[in-house]
Amino acid sequence: MGEVANDEKKVGGGNVKILTTTNVKPKKLIGRKECQLVTFDLPYLAFYYNQKLLLYKGGDDFDDVVEKLKDGLALVLEEFHQLAGKLEKDEDGVFKVVYDDDMDGVEVVTAAAEAIEVAELTAEEGFSKFKELLPYNGVLNLEGLQRPLLAVQLTKLKDGLAMGCAFNHAILDGTSTWHFMSSWAAICGGATSISVPPFLERTKARNTRVKLDLSQPSDAPEHANSASSGGPVLRGKVFKFSESAVDRIKSTVNAGDSKPFTTFQSLSAHVWQAVTRARELGPTDYTVFTVFADCRKRVDPAMPESYFGNLIQAIFTVTGAGLILSNPAEFGAGLIRNAIESHNAEAITKRNEEWESNPVIFQYKDAGVNCVAVGSSPRFQVYDVDFGWGSPESVRSGLNNRFDGMVYLYPGKSGGRSIDVEISLEAKTMEKLEKDKDFLIQP
């Protein structure tokens, strides 16, 4: 079942020592279950596993915590069994996610980094220090043909626990990720059943069989994970916007428009304008804003919030940098709103049909030139993921799928309408953004 390793790795000024690697399967026998991947899933095969890091203070005895987490995982996987499966292709080359009782299940690694304090990892600056706390760095989703679709690393810290998770992005999006995490936490916290089981019939959203040939060199990703490739040096930083700062941004953006902009539209426009300013783009340079929009309520028929899989599409907005910089932020907010509102069921179907007629496997950084691309959402209640010893001190994204202009939005730990904006930028651009008082919203 498990094997012991003695692999020490440097992180945050201390050592991470891998202790054990085991696998966790659903507690009860389920039999063979198959589900075809659909058009919403397939474009992400050449993305990397989606990594999340949750940092907790305190906790009980580490070994007891690990067993409690594994027991809860075995129970929650009875409903979320796809995460314990593998990718397969049928005789026609159509991808599917398959679970069978003889599969390995979820990979769970335990590790120790007892010289590292939680506070060292909750600083707003950087992301490279997380690398050895996360599984599957630089692993493509396509490798889910051979690897588990979920890997978890539990690392004992000096005063807490780091939970690093790597989810195969070809089988689930952010909404499904946090549905699973909250369900796992609830089971560990004493719930006897999952309050909202996952809706696993993804062909209800789209039932077109797409045959993919990934043997051509042009289809194969040519670059490694962004955080370790030879491209521009990226810096990551979390900018914490308090409830009052978010309200001020929203009020400013809405100053001249009769139809109110949402918090997301207002904050996105604020970030887009500030990053464009920090990049010192010329007036005729293009800049692209990209949002990965949840389509559960946009498709016809609408899908439940519990739909398990990918039901997102990238929505692109392009304009000249000069227009973003010379106009109030409401200009960018208007572009973002128009793009989001026009992405209705008809537009989604058209996008799917176009892709199905000429399938293109995207790479993680195909978000556009001089882009600001927003993933995650402050709607995800990440600080409610309490396994029985309190809410996380911090929730961060890993190293995978980062590129210049990638933005992750999370609710602020302080609650209310506060929002954390995690941004990856070229180092020189980040330096300018850090000094931009108009962006930072000084109290």
From TrEMBL:
Which Pfam families has this protein been placed in? Transferase
Sorted keywords for this record are: Acyltransferase, Transferase
Gene Ontology MF, one: acyltransferase activity
Q: Which residues form a coiled coil?
A: none
> For this UniProt entry, which segments traverse the membrane?
none
For the keyword Acyltransferase, the answer is yes
What family does the entry list? Answer: Belongs to the plant acyltransferase family.
What name does UniProt use for this protein? HXXXD-type acyl-transferase family protein
